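Regression test case RT-17, inverse folding.

Input:
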């Protein structure tokens, strides 16, 4: 993934689109594998030790997620596709305006979010709300807020690649349905899992990227700002860019 520049060539765009398509196909393959494992696990719980039953036939099963927001949310709320489902209290799907121009994506729910079933409601959430209201001059419910994984990783650890990839189809479908003009990723994990780029957050924050029909600006996670208040200045600069892009396309 490269920063925007006027020198973008058609060849680069075609190659980039092909790479994104391959990445999407890999994500859907991961989802299919997770569904298959889940069905085998259910058969095991029913007492099967060996089975020649094919739990899901690729050619006959539709793996597409619902195109309707409430149906998608319902599917996620009943999801047990990864290990995180075993320790969560609530699935934290996301909240806000489902037609928002601006979307914030964090890493995963923390303890407060897990107990309330809402994203960014703890101390980090208070700070994010202040950033939205005081810098962007928007109401919190005018943007859409979600995370890379919808269930809390135990002890707030970073989601594993397997967990992030298993959950990713929900996020990609949310983005497809909301159709934001701009996404702000909060923290290095969210940026990395959404873009596939492993560049560190300190290097990449504040840079503008273009992918899949939306602009993307990575910045620090509010929890990092709580531990390092001096970094608020940099986030303030990032959000000024976001504001300008929303107001002046
Ligand atoms: S984190 Fe995502 S994939 Fe894992 S159980 Fe929760 S909703 Fe399902």
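Golden output:
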């Amino acid at each position: 993934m490269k920063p925007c520049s006027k020198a973008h060539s058609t060849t680069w765009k075609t190659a980039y689109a092909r790479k994104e398509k391959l990445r999407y196909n890999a994500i859907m393959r991961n989802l299919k594998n997770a569904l298959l494992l889940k069905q085998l696990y259910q058969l095991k719980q029913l007492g099967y030790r060996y089975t020649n039953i094919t739990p899901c036939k690729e050619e006959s099963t539709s793996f597409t997620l619902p195109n309707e927001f409430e149906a998608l949310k319902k599917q996620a709320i009943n999801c047990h596709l990864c290990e995180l489902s075993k320790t969560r209290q609530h699935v934290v799907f996301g909240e806000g305006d489902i037609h928002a121009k601006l979307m914030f994506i964090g890493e995963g729910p923390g303890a407060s979010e897990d107990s309330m079933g809402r994203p960014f409601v703890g101390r980090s959430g208070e700070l994010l709300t202040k950033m939205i209201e005081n810098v962007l001059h928007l109401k919190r419910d005018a943007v859409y807020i979600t995370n890379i994984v919808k269930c809390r990783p135990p002890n707030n650890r970073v989601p594993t690649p397997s967990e992030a990839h298993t959950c990713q189809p929900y996020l990609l479908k949310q983005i497809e349905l909301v159709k934001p003009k701009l996404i702000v990723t909060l923290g290095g994990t969210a940026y990395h899992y959404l873009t596939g780029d492993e560049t560190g957050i300190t290097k990449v924050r504040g840079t503008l990227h273009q992918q899949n029909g939306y602009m993307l600006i990575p910045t620090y996670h509010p929890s990092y700002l709580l531990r390092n208040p001096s970094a608020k200045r940099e986030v303030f600069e990032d959000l000024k860019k976001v504001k300008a892009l929303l107001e002046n396309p």
